[in-house]
Amino acid sequence: MRRTLIASIALALAATLAAPASAHQPVFLLPTDTTPNAGPLLVDGTVSFAIRASFTKSGQKQAFRAALKEGDILEVQYLIIDKKPEKALKNTKLPQLVITSPLGKKFTMKFTERTKFLEEYSRTMYLYLGRYSAPAEAGIYQFVATSRARAAITIAVGYQEIPGQVLRGPASTPPMAQPTPTPAAVAPTPKPSPTPEPEMTTQAGYTMAKVKENNSAASCWSVINGNVYNLTQWINSHPGGPSVIRGLCGVDGTSTFNGKHRGQSNPTSTLASYLLGPLAK
Description:
Blueprint: E1 4-6, E2 22-23, E3 25-28, E4 41-42, E5 49-55, E6 61-68, E7 73-81, E8 96-100, E9 106-108, E10 115-119, E11 124-135, E12 139-146, E13 151-157, E14 166-167, E15 200-201, E16 205-206, H1 208-213, E17 215-216, E18 219-224, E19 227-230, H2 242-246, H3 254-261, H4 265-272, E20 275-278
Parallel strand pairs: 3-5, 4-6
Antiparallel strand pairs: 1-2, 4-14, 5-13, 6-12, 7-11, 7-13, 8-9, 8-12, 10-11, 15-16, 17-18, 18-19, 19-20
């Protein structure tokens, strides 16, 4: 979804907010994204993304990461939908967002406003609760949201209105964050590599057998154009209805997706936010 998520506020608010309009691509956090390393990585934290976190009870955690370079600006906004239960919750009951910098500095997002904002693509009214902007440290920022009641939030990160890349899995480290290898004085004795698990390896990708195992609304994986996607969170968000996505669960959905959405930027951008990795050859 490439249409505006962080945009110019309604005309009545224009006198108080002068921030330029920007579009945010959606990324839905999964129940398994309980730590930054387990969650998705925004390869470029200056690219605009809308991170959606949903909680069913107090004490749950969802997390993600974003990579930034020296000279970049870290921009973060905290939003909720302008409806119950979120809008009825006191600030002390909304999920707490803690941001940790590459050097270990922690910052808790402060709620300083309740400014209405109409997201034009879905015609959904949101409320800004807090905003943060500061020069970035070089490296990986960690974001951890901890629930204090049943609620859903949106964490907007970045400001560039361009397509961005999201990585998932144990190999999700951007090239800029990888350490430079130090030559060894003595070459180590080669050791045989362990046999990779048959269902997936970071080199080969996800197997079709693994995709077929995730063939229900509770865990819906699909293959589209040679890549594997976890569409579980898209089932109830799909504008065309949940049954269309359920039909893609556990199968190669390339022909179905391309038949309906080939050449359309919004569905393709939304699909990219659910990427797990390549299909094993």
